[in-house]
Amino acid sequence: NRYKIISRRNSYHGATYGALSATGLPDFVEPFHPLVPGFVKAMSTFCYHCELGLEPSSCNLACLKNMEQTILGEKPGTVAAVIVDPIPGSNTGYPVPPDGYIPGLRALCDKYGILLIFDEVQVGFGKTGKMFACENWNVVPDFLCLAKGFTGGYLPMGVVIVKEGIANEFRKPGKDFHHGFTFSGNPTIACVVLKVIEIIKKENLVQKAVETGKYLEENLRILYEYPVVGDIRGIGMLWAVELVEDRKTKKPLDSKLKVGTWIRDYCWKKGMILRNNAEILVIAPALIMTREQVDFMIDIIDEAIREAIKHFKF
Ligand SMILES: Cc1ncc(COP(=O)(O)O)c(C=O)c1O
């Protein structure tokens, strides 16, 4: 009877039909309706733009309560899994969930017998300063999805790690896993991934991400000197700078001005590839980045913001 999957608003899980149905970004999803049935959305943990207008210091984890209400509203016995991107990705600029949310989510899933899926496609493999993002809370999901970090996008490879008990279901006599693809388990790429894991360990790159990430954070925070910088958020080597018209009220910039895109183009002209999602500037460098490269990057972003302030007369 359990066929529903609860995901969250503002999440991104991919562009294939099932993953898109779990995705919670209306602009990405709406052109493809109708979606796969059984996908239900709960509140996100995007604290800077909290759906309820609350502050993390006093909200009492309203987002976790919303998840429980959503489960109860759907009748827990019909819910197979909850899927979350524990730290949402570049589309929202790495909003780290409030303390207690991820352990609370694990407890909720256990309470109602629901499987917990962590989509760490973007935030896994050292990027948060831990090999897996879920280690930041010592929480173990039932499914862990990984991809980008271990090939850097140069080769196509994604994996889903499952708990032993789930894998064993498919090993029972008479049971099979009929869900393969021509290019599944590609041995050449698997060799590359094993080598990457070996190098990450040998060169201590996860610890390096902690140290370089701290340096990156300290230097990024200097950008608060510009009133147009509303929020700087992130963890490890994953950071975002969100630009606003008014820091106090969080009033957004006029989207027609396309300030974020102007800044992105400025950085590109200066020799640095920056991604923006509207007014969110996204910074997710490789684990091997040096302090000198951080300085280079921050200098260009700083200059780009200064030039944008002049250009748009803020
Ligand atoms: C969190 C997350 N999940 C899933 C995906 C989808 O991965 P793919 O494009 O390889 O299907 C992405 C891609 O950006 C992602 O960031």
UniProtKB/TrEMBL annotation:
SUPFAM superfamilies: PLP-dependent transferases. Keywords: Aminotransferase, Pyridoxal phosphate, Transferase. One of its GO terms (molecular function) is pyridoxal phosphate binding. Pfam families: Aminotran_3. Signal peptide: none annotated. InterPro entries: Aminotrans_3, PyrdxlP-dep_Trfase, PyrdxlP-dep_Trfase_major, PyrdxlP-dep_Trfase_small. GO terms for cellular component: cytosol. CDD domains: OAT_like. Belongs to the class-III pyridoxal-phosphate-dependent aminotransferase family. This is Aspartate aminotransferase family protein. It comes from Candidatus Desantisbacteria bacterium CG07_land_8_20_14_0_80_39_15.
